[in-house]
Amino acid sequence: MAPILSIRDLRKSYDGGFEALKGVSLDIEEGEIIALLGPNGAGKTTLISTVCGITMPTSGSVTVAGFDILDNYRQARALIGLVPQEIALEPFEKVINTVRFSRGLFGKGRKDTAVEDILKRLSLWDKRDAQIRELSGGMKRRVLIAKALAHEPRVLFLDEPTAGVDVELRKDMWEIVEQLRNDGVTTILTTHYIEEAEAIADRVGVINKGEILLVEDKDKLVARMGQKQLDVQLTTHLEAIPEALASYDLSLEGDGWTLVYRYDTKAERTGITKLLNDVSAAGLQLKDVVTRQSSLEDIFVSLVREAPENAA
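The structure corresponding to this sequence follows.
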């Protein structure tokens, strides 16, 4: 089956020579959720704006369900919903009229049952006759999602959808995205919240300085690149790592009460057994031993840090 969204060698340059996108290529399958991670200025919003027709590409191609975003602009754009990063809503308009208007912009006929369904799913039905200015910031973000869904798109872009909202509302948003997946909607979200990608994404893409560094299944990414960490908690306080343990790649943390040993999960031998024996031989008593897996955040930071400087 052909991907619902196909991006090929997409480039965007501005006057003065700045390259915001440097040959981005990406295929996204129908119904999947993909999270794009990247620092400020990485090119996330430029990529979304270009795909959605807000910004013209310098070169490359993008198709949505086979429709080219330039040659078949109307058909392609009708399949896309966009929730922008900034909240820009008419403050004195009613919630329900705002959503109806967005539906009409795409030439969709009035369908009150569809609007009602969207508002109910987003917990906005009770606020349907409220003016936008009466809503909290989190509820306004829900209205933005409702507007983006009003014309029944197949692809939904969420640009920092939970920025500035509390943890409870953020989790509500995750549930909404999962419901949309059940309806067959493909979702691409940009986020600064690593836990957001870990919670809901099928695949994770890392973008930095206009280039895609990696796109991979979330679980496979953590398994492939993740390291494990062994925290050896001691009953004795240390000022420095004993010379007898100098051959190990250890760090001293927890104000001198914990030896930290990092190892590759794919290595044939982890060296843990020998390390613990040598810790005991050095006269140190163990209080506890704890292992933990590298998080997606650790991997993300590592990828961005290792990106070549000449990619600016």
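The radius of gyration is 24 Å.
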